[in-house]
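In this supplementary section we document a worked example of the pipeline. Step one takes a protein sequence of length 320 as its only input; no multiple sequence alignment statistics are reported here. Step two produces a three-dimensional model, which step three serialises into structure tokens for compact storage. The input and output of this example are shown verbatim.
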Amino acid sequence: MITVRGRRAGSTGIRCAIVAVLDCREAAPTGIMAGMAAAALSSSPVRPGTGWPGDPATPRTPVAGDPIDVRTLAASARVIGVLDARVSVCRACPRLVAWREEVARTKRKAFADEPYWGRPAPGWGAERPRVLIVGLAPAAHGANRTGRVFTGDRSGDWLFAALHRVGLAATATSAYAGDGQHLPVTRVVAAVRCAPPANAPTPVERATCAPWLERELDLVLPTLDVVVVLGGFGWAAALTSLAAAGCSVPSPRPRFGHGARTEVVTPDRRVIAVLGCYHPSQQNTFTGRLTESMTDDVLGQAAVLAGGHPPQGTAGAARG
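The serialised model returned by step three reads:
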């Protein structure tokens, strides 16, 4: 059930009324991103609207408490800012809520003196992107700590360094929210928005979270040129969500692989490329299964498809 200001809305009529009234009021104003308030610093998990940089929510943001709420709130979000706010306070999956908050309270020793976000990680980057990057789920001590997807962990270090090399990110690092990183034409999202135990969301949790990605794709589709998918689960989730957004997806569905490429056709008959890339997990990068040149090749292709020009010498530029 949807919760607002501590009250739960049970009937369909009340749900619709809440959505209509709060849709334009629940996203945090831009000024709130200027710095972390003392309240945010003293609390893990971080409470909505207490000053954490980039926090899109306020205490008025309605909270999804079950799968029906997720579908209701996702479908009625008219703009990315409102969708991000609703994602960031979701409590629809009890196991994931318990895990993300336990990690935020106990913390890793290296971050014992830091506050942890401890909430779902919404999409981040351009609101009208030409490139969309889809991963699996936040890392327990990465986005679950920093509040920004692919930020504060080794996978994020690898990804953002590559994005910078091909011209899709302003800087080569993504360390914490409010660090000056900027994605002019790129948006990064996770198929599942909460950090899962053992990096493994259950099928039910994946299905519960899916409407957030479906609605996000629907909102960014008008400007999108290419989707880059990191890993096999993200590949399946992205194709399913593109189909839900009205795109014509190949049948049978193409298989995932590094360097895999397929195309989908939007309702307005535009063609969007979907590119596969191994996930930049330490398991892949430490073993050499995924190298910098392999990552640059895929992201370089994305930059070219989005109208950019990767630095000379990258594999993506050679193929462009």
